[in-house]
Hints:
Elements: H1 2-19, E1 26-28, H2 39-45, E2 48-58, E3 68-71, E4 74-78, E5 82-93, H3 97-113, E6 116-118, E7 138-144, H4 148-158, E8 165-175, E9 180-185, H5 194-198
Parallel strand pairs: 1-2
Antiparallel strand pairs: 2-5, 3-4, 4-9, 5-8, 6-7, 7-8
Amino acid sequence: MIYETLQILKEQLEKYFTEIxxxxxxxxxxxxxxxxxxNNDEKKVEGKVVLSLLKIxxxxxxxxxxxFEVKDNKTAYKNxxxxxxxxxxxxxxxxxYDKSLRSISKIIxxxxxxxxxxxxxxxxxRNNVAFEELNYFRFNLxxxxxxxxxxxxxxxxxxxxxxPSVIYKIQLVQIDKDKKLASSEVITHIxxxxxxxxx
Length: 199
């Protein structure tokens, strides 16, 4: 679901850039390839607005959900889904600095207008093999503003040189294998009486 989420966002931004008359320059790739010294890798992110996964964080507040489900008088036990927050770095590595700044501005503008993405309000390429089992999704984006020190660490980790960029926190991407661990009949009453306990 991580790839699917980022690919959906990539498609949405490509569509928006086309609508407003900008080039289709959105790429889902690792911005750390820029300045890596490998010409083939650098060409992938040259002149592009690059979406890179920065961090994965578990949403611990949702860990206390029940690990069973009652349906048709049967109790099914399974592991809880993993709820994730993804931190998405969007970097503009365009041909000119002003084009990079305009691209970042347009991305902020787009996500200001649409923060919540669901399977009903989002048109995406259903022919993509990765989306074959994707029936329902819902996630929202929130602008994340790191401190200067945190930003310095981020770009230091990615190679040192900084590009015009913005970070978004994508909330609640759920990963669930939906594997049943066990099942049993629902307990509706307890038999016996107090005399049975005294024997």
